[in-house]
Predict the 3D structure of the following.
Amino acid sequence: MHSLPLFVRLAGRPVALIGSGPAAEAKRRLLDRAGAVVVDEEHAVALAIVADGDEAATTRLKARGVLVNVVDRPELCDFTLPAIVDRSPVIVAVGTGGASAGLAKALRQRLETLLPAALGPLATALEEARTTMRARWPDAVERRHALDTGFATGAALDPLAEGHDVAGWLGATATPTARHEVIRLASPDPDELTLRAARLLGEADAIWHDAKVPTAILDRARADAERHVGAPPADERPGLTLEVRFA
C-alpha cells in the first residue's frame, strides 16, 4: 500500500492554493465543498495545493513542514486527491497515487451507478441508533457481528438496497454467538478468493492460518483481526474464529 488513506476535516481551516487557471479553480471548488478557507502561500497552513507546478513554492512550503499536493506532478506530492463519490455522510474515495487520474475517474463513475442515495440516510440513522446498539450489544465483538449480519446482501441494512429500517433491525436481530469457520484456498492469488472466503476474511475476529498463506490474502482481513500461525485452540473463542488453509 503506497499511501495511507485519510479523511481530513477542513471546515473553517486554512489551506493554501497556489496558481490560477482551470486546474486551480477545480481545486478551489473542491476545497469549498469541504468547507476549507482558501488562502495564499504566506498564511500558516498544514496543507497546500500547488496547481501551476511552481517548484520553488513547493520547496518553500515543504521546508515549513506543510504537506503539499502538486497537480500532475505525483513525484512531488505528499498527498494526492482522490476521485470522490459523495453520499454524505458516506464518502467513497478512489485513488491511484497519481498513477492515473483517468482510471480513478472511471472507477468513480462506475461506483456512482452502484451506490444508492439511501446510503447517506442509512449512515445517519445508524449514528442516531449508536446508544441503542451499545445498550443492546454491550460487547464490541457482538455489536460488530450484528452489524455484519445486517449489512449482508438482501438483509435489513444491505447498503446497496433502499428503504432501510434500522429500528426494525434492532428489534429483530438476535445476539450473535461465537462461531468457527474454515476456508480452503485453491490458489495464492487473492483475486481468486471465493465470495464466501472474502466475506469471512472481512468479518473474522481471529485468524489462524498456514505459514504459507501469502500476506496478500491475509491483508484482505480487518486490520484489527488477530493473526496466528497454526491451528486454533480447542476452547471456544468469542466472535468469529477463522482457519485459512490451502486445499
